[in-house]
């Protein structure tokens, strides 16, 4: 299976996925693609011999369709079987998503359906939640929705700042996403539960 990974920044989840696709793993990375040419993850992927590309979203301003038309070019050229959004911070239209329906995954830093959208850690703290975590789900036209493929839970600790909680969740993301991707690439859809 060929896996394309979309990033917007440092790409720590992308790195965890790259490092997992070795040996008898049924998938291999075919592209790392970013909406930011300066994304730190691009150099890390290139250093590992993975093809990289970037389409800067800023020249397209609000013209989401035009940006996505450009983004599709390197993505379709790479002919991925699976597309993983990993710290990708642009909202994709239903039209774009429909091209990869059933084979596009995303990782979100909350226990969906709680806290779709941004600032999930401060929202969990504000709510006084005893636990928090991350979710890998199939991407559909509705943001941070779609069938859940895995979740990892972490305790919220007294005195937690959003940054401390985010770091605890991120560490689990790096275990959850590779576990879900391997299972997904093997054709399994039974959910992964960690922590
Ligand atoms: C992090 O907030 C993570 O929780 C979310 O995307 C952000 C950046 O992740 N999935 P990464 O380090 O670029 O993978």
Automatic annotation (TrEMBL):
N(1)-(5-phospho-beta-D-ribosyl)glycinamide binds at residues 11-13. One of its GO terms (molecular function) is phosphoribosylglycinamide formyltransferase activity. (6R)-10-formyltetrahydrofolate binds at residues 64, 106. Pathway: Purine metabolism; IMP biosynthesis via de novo pathway; N(2)-formyl-N(1)-(5-phospho-D-ribosyl)glycinamide from N(1)-(5-phospho-D-ribosyl)glycinamide (10-formyl THF route): step 1/1. The active site is at residue 108. SUPFAM superfamilies: Formyltransferase. InterPro entries: Formyl_transf_N, Formyl_transf_N_sf, GART, GART_AS. PROSITE patterns: GART (PS00373). The record marks 144 as: Raises pKa of active site His. Pfam families: Formyl_trans_N. It catalyses: N(1)-(5-phospho-beta-D-ribosyl)glycinamide + (6R)-10-formyltetrahydrofolate = N(2)-formyl-N(1)-(5-phospho-beta-D-ribosyl)glycinamide + (6S)-5,6,7,8-tetrahydrofolate + H(+). Keywords: Purine biosynthesis, Transferase. Gene3D superfamilies: Formyl transferase, N-terminal domain. Coiled coil: none annotated. The keyword Cell membrane does not apply. HAMAP family: PurN (MF_01930). Catalyzes the transfer of a formyl group from 10-formyltetrahydrofolate to 5-phospho-ribosyl-glycinamide (GAR), producing 5-phospho-ribosyl-N-formylglycinamide (FGAR) and tetrahydrofolate. Belongs to the GART family. NCBIfam families: PurN (TIGR00639). This is Phosphoribosylglycinamide formyltransferase. It comes from Lutimaribacter marinistellae.
